[in-house]
Amino acid sequence: MSRSEDRLDVVIPARAEGDRISACLRALLADDAGLRLRVIVVINGEEAETTEAAVEAFVAPFAAAGHDLLITHSGVGKARALNAGDALRRDGLVMYLDADAVVLPGLLGQVREVFADETAPTLACPRPRVVEGRSLANRAFVRVWSDLPIIREGVIGGGCYAVNAAGRGLWTTFPEIAGDDAFVCALFPPERRIALSPAAVRLIFPERWQDLVVLRARWRRSTREGATAALAVRAAREGGAPRPHPAHPGASRWSTLLSPRLFGSVPLYLAIDLAARAVNRWWPGRSATADWRPLR
User: Fold this and answer.
1) Domain 1-102: what homologous superfamily?
2) Where are the domains of the chain?
3) I need a labelling partner for 26 at 20 to 30 A (CA). Which of 101, 123, 160, 242 fits?
4) pTM for this one?
5) What is the C-alpha separation between 58 and 56, in angstroms, rounded?
6) E-assigned strands of the chain?
7) d(Cα 212, Cα 202) in Å, to the nearest integer?
8) Average pLDDT in the 217-238 region?
């Protein structure tokens, strides 16, 4: 991004997110960091009227601050929503943000700083900061997951990621999978992925253990589908059969699972993880990613 432009487009797919998208938009408006924002909310699926009403309440405040807030619609599916949002964005720096994710203060300023003089294809992601819930299952899962090396040290793009124009040029449209973050991350070699720190994005996980199992199963499946789709895109662009980029070249997850301070949380985390593997093996339709929908 050149310093003369100082603009950022934000694409937000929103399906049944009328109760959460207000916090997402309010955080963007409060943290614009001098950027000229174009926020594109793509409404799809059920509860469209409720979600649209929540977004429309922010059109005037965004305009008063010198930003654009656009509302459009798409067919069901996260990939369709992302592609519909792409049709309305400008060329240049773009961030993809989940409707239930909240950028924490300073994130957009750090995005601006990182990409100010960056012309090579680059991906930048904030650290996920998960709010612990009330249930035992939620707290155990969050504590272990947040401490995994790939979360602490890697770049996963969960809920929020930004790419410059050269980075966005690595693919044309999003494939029909819900794991868009896994797909995009797999397109970039590790040295072109930047972890934004201390910038962070706030995420909320489900309370019920059953929903955590489905969420974990979806992650596992979308990571596999995203990596496969990224290899196909790279093969078409580079020719031949490219080797997959490593997700995280650092420490094994065993450094977390064997940590004494997480001893009480690891068994429940592993139970959820094993149940997720079983879901993907014996009940794959339960974690189908093409028909993306939010979990509560």
Assistant:
1) Spore Coat Polysaccharide Biosynthesis Protein SpsA; Chain A (3.90.550.10)
2) 1-102, 133-145+165-192+204-290
3) 123
4) 0.91
5) 5
6) 7-14, 36-43, 68-73, 94-97, 102-103, 123-131, 160-163, 193-204
7) 17
8) 90
